[in-house]
Amino acid sequence: MIPQSNLRLRLRAALMVVMLLVLAASAHAADDESSEQVPAASVTTRSVRKYAVPAISLVRDDGKVVSLPDEMNDGRPILLNFIFTTCGSICPLMSSVFGQFERRLGADADKVHLMSISIDPEQDTPARLREYARKFHAGLQWQHYTGTPTASIAAQRAFDVYRGGKMSHNVVTLMRAAPDKPWLRIEGFVTADDLVHDYRKLLASR
After folding, report:
1. Cβ(186)–Cβ(174) under 8 Å?
2. The predicted structure's pLDDT at residue 3
3. What residue ranges define each of the domains in the chain, with the CATH number in brackets?
């Protein structure tokens, strides 16, 4: 019969082995995951910029091929960001804020055009973008766009968000009051309330 003290030691040793195996498995899983991570802290900066909207065609989430300048120059204020549907960190947060922004505006939501352009167009088909949009309860004024890789990169470069690939993208929200006005560039995470405040301030300055 094994003495009770030896039994306790063996149980502790077995428990330590199990814990080490769990930790090793967790570390291995973390290594296998995407290198994209949510920053522990995000400093938000705002600046006013002028951008030339490139003359490119994109595919809207309803499957229609559209001109980017035409989509942006219909007279409505624009909110713009760049996302991809398989993103597991910053894109869902950005999209959640866009959805909350729409709901905060209430009846005024139909006066603004929200646009999300995919930076992974080879994976993000219109059908996949529609499914993604439903997850965030996108309203009628919020469209998602895909297209060729060349067109996507051209759009990213035009708004200075291209960083060489989808795993290197950062958090940028762009806002414009009217076609002939400059853009407000917001870098870093913002809340929906902050975005509403920026939006109303921008409209008041038109």
Report:
1. yes
2. 54
3. 46-204 (3.40.30.10)
